[in-house]
Amino acid sequence: MASDVTIFTDESVVCEGPIVPGPDLATWANGVGATLLEEAGLETTGPMDFPPRLLQAEYLSWVWDRVVRSLPAGVTVTTHLERAVSLTSGWGNRVELASGEVLEADLVVLALGYLDRVPTADEAALADSASSAGLTYIPPGYTADVDLSELRPAEPVIVRGFGQAFVDLMVLLTEGRGGWYDGCSGRLEYNPSGSEPILYVGSRRGVPYHAKLGYTVPGTTPVPTRYLTAEALGTEPLDFVTQVQPLVEKELTFAHYQQLFLAHPERTAWPWQQFFGVLDRTLPSSPEFIAAVNEAVPAVEDRFVLAAIDRPLAGLTFDDPESLDRELVRLIEDDLLRRADPTFSADLAVFNALLSVYSVLSVAITAGLLSDEDRVRHVETEWHGFFSFVASGPPPRRLEELLALHRAGLVRFAGPSLEVALRNDRFVASSPALPREIEARAFVEARLPRPDVLATPDPLLKGLLESGLLAADELIASDGTSLGGGQLKADGECRAIKADGSVHPSLFLLGPSVSGSAGSSGFSRPHFNGPGFRQNDAVARQLLQLVAVQSEKAGRRHAS
Fold it and tell me: Which Pfam families match (predicted)?
């Protein structure tokens, strides 16, 4: 929500500072930013609204301008709006731009976002086979950058992926092709332009991500973890499945039931302390705890069962596509109602617990407590997938649009555990939940590519990795299979670690593609002691200190 986005530090941020407060996105949009938004043709936003990206971009642009204007005399900022293509280091650093211009720098910070990557071997082989058969295959990618022109009006398109990448795809292929919505009849209806394809969408879960929560409850802010703590994890290497995952599940279970029992006691049959006593001494999977839930929490919708939340269609089969459609519509409609209803504030408590758990897992990874295999397979894949499914879904409006598109016949549901193969010059999709196959000329992988810095096509990073100025490992699982490239290596001060293991003294790395970086946690929330703020403050201070030392040395050389 707009009130949950800030780019400014506040009194909660533990850093040397100085703390420079400023408005969160909602406050800015209804204050100093209102005129800018009007000039840009954008509507303002309320504190509980989910602002579009263009509005957030205006906020970030305003913050940038404010920062530049606030710099003291003698400090200048020069922007070069082009790609940096190479970096060489000797006595200093030489950054070459795409135009051929060379910048000489004492210090360099690579503030890296999410990186493009070349297709995997399987994706490349499928693309070649599809091209030979005259088919359209769109591999994983950032949807806004993908060419969708080969997806033809009224033709079936198999889509695998039901998260944010799918939502972006859905918007581009409907409203982006001239269709529009209206709610005059009391519910949202879609008016097609005639240029839309028909999307058959499925995924591992077979259901869309949960809608974002549309309410706040006083007192339900992120709190320190109770069970998944640094003390509980210790200092020795851990097995994620047997040692970490049970604590994660217990943490989320505790958050859910504490909020349910204390905020909504009329829906429970036991006092909180009695129920907490069972939870505290057992695990959520234990028969004793399951029996306690069955007795103390009468309504099934008030219970927290992680496996059922993670895979709502697990084990279900449907006689025909219409039966699956009815179940999906019911799940989505129930989700929209629940995510707008503060009487289910236990969901908000779980959301906040997820944020706290994420922070602890990040620290465990940085401290080397998890193997590369556990990190990639269980944290970056399974855990991050669950986190995104529950806590990082679309605004409610997008799910309302999904239902409207389904009623218009432009989105159809293909089921869970969706498998797609190329057979007889057609893409064929199947799900174990349905006794039918879907054939289509076009197939879209609606998901982001798995991060792999060794597979990036970016010329700057490729050159730095090849020269040894940056390092990243090829990760190998215990069974000998490759897990792909890891993240770029950096030390605890965010300085680049070179291929020979030494630390680069003047090259710093930040962002989600960097080991130990706080840059993958998204926007910081007000009053939440954002890890990105803490890390950036420390790096900025180190940069200033290094510049001061270099200036002092230069002054002494000049004086002599």
Answer: NAD_binding_9
HEC readout, 446-480 = CCCCCCCHHHCCCHHHHHHHHHCCCCCCEEECCCC
Q: What is the mean pLDDT of the chain?
A: 92
Q: 39 to each of 2, 36, 334, how far by Cα in Å?
A: 20, 5, 39
CA nearest neighbour of 217 among 347, 85, 73: 347
51 with 29: CB under 8 angstroms?
yes
Residue 259 has pLDDT above 90, yes or no: yes
Report the pLDDT averaged over residues 142-157. 92
- Which residue carries 């030489």 as its tokens? 94
Among residues 483, 458, 450, 477, which one has the least CA distance to residue 119? Answer: 450
DSSP string, 28-81: HHTTTTHHHHHHTT-----TTS---HHHHHHHHHHHHHHHHHHSPTT-------
Question: Beta-carbon neighbour count of residue 126 at 10 Å?
Answer: 21
CATH homologous superfamily of 121-209+396-445 equals: FAD/NAD(P)-binding domain (3.50.50.60)
Prediction pTM value = 0.87
CA 81 to chain centre: 27
Return the amino acid letter for 531: P
Other C-beta atoms within 10 Å of 39: how many?
9
| Domain ranges, ordered by start, for the chain | 121-209+396-445, 230-316+337-391
Joined together, the tokens standing for residue 535 give 């890390």
The mean per-residue pLDDT over the stretch 367-372 comes to 86
Closest CA to 194 of 140, 134, 153, 250: 153
Give the residue among 41, 13, 11, 8 at the shortest CA–CA distance from 27. 8
> Dihedral, CA atoms, 253, 241, 392, 12, nearest 10 degrees?
70
Average pLDDT of the residues in 461-477: 90
| Confidence band, pLDDT 50/70/90 cuts, at residue 355 | confident
**Which residue in this structure is represented by tokens 């302390």?**
273
User: Is 494 within 8 Å of 535 (Cβ atoms)?
Assistant: yes
Q: Record the tokens describing residue 271, joined without a space.
A: 């006092």
Instruction: Report the DSSP pairing between strands 84-89 and 495-497.
Output: unpaired
1 Cβ contact partners less than 8 Å away, ≥ 6 residues apart: 26, 47, 48, 49, 50, 212, 216
